[in-house]
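Exercise (ungraded).
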Amino acid sequence: MKAIVFDVFGTVVDWRSSLIAQFAELARETGQAIPGETLADEWRGHYAPSMDRVRHGEQPWTVLDDLHRQSLDRLLEAHGLDFDEAQRQRINRFWHRLEPWPDSVAGLTALRRHYTVGSLTNGNLSLMLDVARHAELPWNVLFCADLFRHYKPDREVYLGACDLLGLPPGDVMLCAAHNSDLSAAQALGLKTAFIPRPHEYGPRQTRDLHAEGDWDYVAKDILDLAIRLRSGDSA
Amino acid sequence: MKAIVFDVFGTVVDWRSSLIAQFAELARETGQAIPGETLADEWRGHYAPSMDRVRHGEQPWTVLDDLHRQSLDRLLEAHGLDFDEAQRQRINRFWHRLEPWPDSVAGLTALRRHYTVGSLTNGNLSLMLDVARHAELPWNVLFCADLFRHYKPDREVYLGACDLLGLPPGDVMLCAAHNSDLSAAQALGLKTAFIPRPHEYGPRQTRDLHAEGDWDYVAKDILDLAIRLRSGDSA
């Protein structure tokens, strides 16, 4: 195994707490009451359906920044929240300023000593550059949906990354907090590593609490994955 | 200006001295007489013509690693040099172990404090990952020909990078040691910075010794470019 690619939203960065904190900051600055938790959860609720519209040809190729903006507009209307264009642009960029989980930077740093580490994300490249800078993520390479003009779980994303790496799928491992992402990767011959992020969706999270497939590695977090890989330990 | 993308071979790394040193090492190990300087120069001589065959549709899309191998085989035959398959594979990977010019790492490190810094290279991504690791180049992002399936000076490469950066061409600057590369970028609206590498082609280099266009910046080297950009100085 030569390269490890990572799902980013939820696996490497804590999008929910980061969005809520930025909504709270905006509320303090504007004096407006903003239901930050509800907005964060509902906004993320639009995520998969919005990409599915693109995946199924109901909407032409659209980068995630623009899908986020479309769902934000719908969300604000549903909640009767009145934000002007500048505020909407600012809110949409909340996704560019996400905090890493506590182990992420140390884990990636340890892994890149021995492996190529990259993203394998549905975020667009310009979004991922900002996330990397803000969270100080030490990537070797960024694989983003707009390189392939496909969204995971489309096979073009997983196999496209392997092809650009010049590696057979069996030399590439996907690390993700989501069983469905790993399932798609495994079916195409990639190695898989599951790490649970039991609070990604908040305190009442019900899914992806445990490994649900025969993954090559199951680790506590990214740093623990680095330790297991060095010790030759597996799932 | 928000992002600076770099030509790599010749601009950031010293391919010629690096190839010659590796040929010398191979000669010591095998006891075989190897005309390292001649091979380096002639191998590089095949570079543009081999990409032009792809650019003009005479050969289907082929990554640079494979073009290098095709021209290496021709070169060895022309010189009557007998290397087996394993040796040829090793020699082809000389391009993966290139040394940076003395200012490159310091210059890129200074620039990435204020700009996104990326490659904009005809090398393939897997090749560029090895070069980055070997030379310890602190890229934020790798733009490589195989992302676009086009070689510079095709417009798809320059404009494809701007598109993925989410920036208009005027917010992106190409830094290169080659006037022709800058000319293609400028025609598409990118900013330009020329740095001379007067020994890239050896002691008798005759081209690209001076700026030959109206470039936005002309600097001594990459570190000097970083200093000029901070001081607001221009060409």
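Further reading is listed at the end of the chapter. For now, observe: Chain B has two domains: 3-14+98-231, 15-96. The interface with chain A takes residues 63, 65, 116, 124-126, 129, 132-133, 140-142, 144, 146-147, 164-167 of chain B (CB under 8 Å).
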